[in-house]
């Protein structure tokens, strides 16, 4: 964004330019907005040391991609619902006087025939300019968001971001990076998977893939299967079939001591909250939690035992997620079947956090200390 915009309602926004000659003030607020297939999420934050402090946030299930699988288009109802959520985001940005921001859209807008029409509608009604990002950037930002959770003992890292319309997997080799520098090496990937020239040994991206199946699109593929356990098994098998082009899939010898898998998504955090028996979600208890594959499997089996009606009433799952939790669980089960590891690190973070880290790192407002 390079020039201020005024919406039809007269609300004036000051979007961030991609490059500014003046050095940013470390006290500046940053906004990051992620419009996905199912949800609209935003964070407003301020740099704080090597991380950031969240000042305000927003998250709402908008189901932008509802019906997209069948029609190839965003429906008028889903677009109107999403614009309503974006108006709330615009008001928060204006109220906090945010000057530096980035707002992105992902798989639903990448696939929809009428995405351009939708983006023009958003700009007309809210003054916000959304950018449709490519799968590689989405994967890269998800990886960057997880940097603080990377163990110094990790040599091989798999980051999995289960979205509404797609799932991104990135396999990273950290074996050449000094142990204490491994989390920071992940952060340096914000500029690209190829890495920048540096005297410091870099994290090596072995392979990455964006599978066009997320919790919403995978669910839509098998809606005609009425038997609940059969539908779950088919979804898990189908997702695994779509991993065949991901090179580490066929290299089980890659999985050895020093392997860490980080899962970032509503599915993973919901499974973690269920495992902990939380009646009220607590990010501080979930983010960074390590779960064994047996613990994850027990939660998934409990979801299957509940059935559709039981899941709808289960407060640990929530009304917004009950219809999507089994497709997400099918993806998670497939991943744990392919890479048999006894631990998964739960990340309550993702594209928004990656957008913030990338903006702040590029502006040089984060300290270079430990995470």
Arrangement of strands in the largest sheet:
10-9-8-11-13-12
Mean of the pLDDT scores? 86
Could you spell the SSE succession in H and E letters?
A: EEEEEHHEHHEHEEHEHHEHHEHHEH
Return Rg in Å.
20 Å
Tell me the name of the CATH homologous superfamily of the largest domain. Answer: Exopolyphosphatase. Domain 2
Major sheet details = 6 strands, mixed
Tell me the structural class.
Answer: alpha/beta
Strand content: 15-25%
Number of helices: 13
Kindly report how far apart the N and C termini lie.
30 Å
Principal-axes shape call: globular
* Percent helix: 25-40%
For the record, the count of structural domains works out to: 2
What is the CATH fold-level name of the largest domain? Nucleotidyltransferase, domain 5
**What is the top-level CATH class of the largest domain?**
Alpha Beta
Under the CATH scheme, which architecture of the largest domain would be assigned? Answer: 2-Layer Sandwich
Which parts are unreliable, with pLDDT below 50 for 5 consecutive residues or more? 1-21
How would you characterize the overall build of this protein?
- The protein is α/β, with parallel strands linked by helices and 371 residues long.
- It has 2 domains: 5-133, ATPase, nucleotide binding domain (Nucleotidyltransferase, domain 5, 2-Layer Sandwich), CATH 3.30.420; 137-351, 2-Layer Sandwich (Nucleotidyltransferase, domain 5), CATH 3.30.420.150.
- 39% of the residues lie in helices and 20% in strands.
- The protein is built from 13 helices and 13 strands.
- It has helices at residues 68-71, 76-96, 107-111, 115-126, 135-145, 182-187, 215-221, 228-241, 266-276, 283-286, 293-313, 325-338, 351-363; strands at 5-6, 12-13, 30-35, 39-48, 51-61, 100-105, 131-132, 156-162, 167-173, 204-211, 259-264, 290-291, 344-347.
- Helix 7 (215-221) packs across helix 12 (325-338) and helix 9 (266-276) packs across helix 12 (325-338).
- The longest helix is centred in the first third of the chain and has 21 residues, at 76-96.
- It is globular and about 60 Å long.
- Residues 1-21 have low confidence and may be disordered.
